[in-house]
Structures are given as C-alpha cells and as structure tokens.
Amino acid sequence: MPKNQIDSVSGEIKKLLKSKRLIIGTQRTLKGLKEGKLQRVYVSSNCPASVRQDIAHYVRIHPVEIVEMEQPNEDVGVLCKKPFLISVLGLLKEGTA
Questions:
Q1: CATH number reported for the structural domain that contains residue 13 in this entry
Q2: Domains in the chain, number
Q3: Cα Dmax for the chain
Q4: What distance lies between CA 83 and its chain's CA centroid?
Q5: CA-CA-CA-CA dihedral for 41, 96, 18, 7, to nearest 10
Q6: Cα gap 64→61, rounded to integer Å
Q7: Which helix (H) or strand (E) holds 91?
Q8: pLDDT, tens digit, for every residue of 3-46?
Q9: What is the phi/psi pair of residue 43, to 5°?
Q10: Number of neighbours of residue 7 by Cβ within 10 angstroms
Q11: Each residue of 34-84: pLDDT tens digit?
Q12: Burial class (CB in 10 A: 0-12, 13-18, 19+), 87
C-alpha cells in the first residue's frame, strides 16, 4: 500500500475517534458485527488468524466492508492513543449508539 493510502487510513481513524463512532477491540467489534451495527471493520496487519476467521464468518451474515491496514496492532494502539495493542476497530453505522 502506498504511503499516502496508509496516511489516509490513519487520518480517517483519527477523525472517527473524535466522532465517537469507532469501537475499539475484538470483542466489542464482533458483538457489533453480530448485531448488524457496523458499516466497516479495520483489521491490523498482524491480527490473529482466529480473529480474522471470526470476522469473515460474521461478514457473511451482515455484509460489512473490511479494511486491511498496513499498520501492526502496536501502531494501531498508538494511533488510537491507547496503552495497549489493538487488532480490530469497528465503525458504527450512522445513528447507531
């Protein structure tokens, strides 16, 4: 992925964090997928295979865009200003809380 695309994904995530529509973490994201509340899922480059399989399963039930990020989970944690690794982020649909 070209650097400008990486920067655009990073910039998009920063904007979404401010909008309060981004949910952080595997469990919360999978729950949102199960309930059909998500419009997009961001997956880090080193996300565990088991998590990727779970996401793929729920995406078959509720079609959602999956964005494969170039950043590893450590960089995603830093990007989100959290003191832990983040493998998965979910974007809530408009009007969903």
A1: 3.30.1330.30
A2: 1
A3: 34
A4: 17
A5: 20
A6: 9
A7: strand 88-92
A8: 555 578 888 999 999 988 999 999 999 999 999 999 999 999 99
A9: -120, 130
A10: 10
A11: 999 999 999 999 999 999 999 999 999 889 999 999 999 999 999 999 999
A12: buried
Q: Determine, yes or no, domain membership for 97.
A: no
Which residue has 């199960």 as its token pair? 34
Please give the DSSP secondary-structure letter assigned to residue 84: S
CB-CB contact of 24 with 86 (8 Å)? yes
Q: Which domain holds residue 31?
A: 3-92
Q: Please give the full DSSP string across 16-64, using - where no structure is assigned.
A: HHHHT-EEESHHHHHHHHHTT-EEEEEE-TT--HHHHHHHHHHHHHS--
Question: Using CA atoms in the order 22, 70, 45, 76, what is the torsion angle rounded to 10 degrees?
Answer: -40
pTM listed for this prediction: 0.89
Residues with Cβ < 8 Å from 18, sequence gap 6 or more? none
